[in-house]
Design a protein that fits this description.
By secondary structure, the protein is mainly α. The chain folds into 2 domains: 167 residues, no CATH class; 105 residues, NusB-like (N-utilizing Substance Protein B Homolog, Chain A, Orthogonal Bundle). The chain is built from 15 helices and no strands. Helix 11 packs across helix 14. It is elongated, with a radius of gyration of 25 Å. The protein starts with 16 loop residues before the first helix and ends in a 14-residue tail after the last helix. The N terminus and C terminus are likely disordered.
Length: 358
């Protein structure tokens, strides 16, 4: 990952440039697909969509609390049975996990939950099944049998459980998507922020431990606003740049999502002088691999490189790019179109994730 964009390990806010770029791709696509092309309305939708990602972050943290509470309810039943039968009472170690209790007491999380209509109590059967899966796992058994009994061990347990049972969980994904269409798009990246939050919790901070803020500064909000507006308001100009770089073939047959992704990438390259061209190209190539056709990443990489070099050579872009390495034979080759299958009948994208507004 490049210095400009370190979303998982270095960022101190929940909403960062990785998720902003993805949202802008989604919302720009929706802008052209929906009949009402009002950029002010579309911009409000963008920021609403980003705020929903932050809601999901809080809900996923609250899920840890919900599972722990479910374990507590079951423990009470098991304790009562053991007392009636004169048997040893079961261990309380999981229910009194220090990290989970600290999260339950977290003031910011409690304030969020108090304002929401949906709570995990509304998904009691799923919470029960999730706990039963955890309880039957080797991770759980090793924790319960271990003599290690400190905050770091408790916190590490939940990091492992989250990675193993909360990520890539289709039943959980279905519940979340029922609550918001946005959340199926968001969960994969928001999961990484939940893991980051678990890792950075400190016992001494107690209930006042800070969660990741929604926005770290107005600078990121302005980045989102400027990029979205530039991509749409200058669409004809940016598509002309694409045509110049693909004049040897029919630009109109390019996969539509590829056009959207390149349009936004060009907007970033042209609008933000401090973001290196290589960073912008790499980020949108990765998005293309997820949201467009099978071969889009490689093609978009070549096209954006050619477009940026052309803009620099013609004096329309004042940025630096490393000289292009000569290929065998000493000739460069202009970006070529993808196979006919992409241009006429694009393959099904890896993710069918572009949804209309709620």
């Amino acid at each position: 990952m490049h210095e400009e964009n370190k979303p998982i390990n270095a960022s101190s806010e929940m909403i960062n440039r990785e998720i902003i770029r993805i949202k802008i791709v989604q919302l720009t696509y929706a802008y052209y697909q929906n009949g009402n092309k009002n950029i002010d309305t579309a911009e409000k939708e963008l920021f609403f969509s980003l705020s929903k990602a932050y809601d999901l972050y809080n809900y996923l943290l609250a899920l840890i609390v919900a599972v722990t509470k479910e374990a507590g309810r079951r423990l009470e039943v098991a304790q009562a049975r053991a007392r009636r039968e004169g048997q040893p009472e079961p261990s309380q170690k999981f229910v009194f996990n220090r990290f989970a209790l600290q999260l339950e007491e977290n003031k910011a999380l409690a304030d969020f939950i108090s304002t929401q209509k949906f709570t995990w109590d509304d998904a009691a059967s799923t919470i029960g099944q999730l706990f039963e899966t955890i309880e039957g796992s080797e991770i759980y058994k090793e924790y319960m049998e271990s003599k290690e009994d400190d905050y770091e061990t408790d916190r590490e347990l939940w990091r492992k459980l989250y990675k193993t049972f909360f990520m890539n969980n289709s039943e959980l994904d279905a519940i979340l998507e029922d609550q918001s269409l946005y959340w199926n798009d968001d969960k994969e990246i928001v999961d990484t922020f939940v893991l980051k939050t678990i890792k950075r919790f400190k016992e001494q901070n107690g209930a006042k431990e800070e969660l990741l803020p929604e926005w770290d500064s107005d600078e990121e909000k302005e980045y989102a606003r400027k990029l979205f507006r530039a991509a749409i308001l200058n669409d004809a100009q940016y598509q002309r740049f694409m045509s110049e770089a693909s004049r040897n073939w029919d630009f109109s047959r390019l996969a539509y999502m590829d056009v959207i992704i390149m349009q936004i990438a060009i907007a970033e390259i042209m609008t933000f002088p401090n973001i290196p061209i290589s960073v912008s190209i790499n980020e949108y190539v990765e998005i293309a691999k997820l949201y467009s056709t099978r071969k889009s990443g490689g093609y978009i990489n070549g096209m954006l490189d050619a477009i940026a070099r052309n803009l620099i050579q013609t004096g329309r872009l004042l940025k630096h790019m490393e000289p292009k390495k000569e290929k065998a034979g000493g000739k460069h080759h202009q970006a070529k179109p993808q196979a006919e299958e992409q241009q006429e009948a694009p393959q099904k994208p890896k993710r069918q994730r572009i949804k209309k507004q709620e």
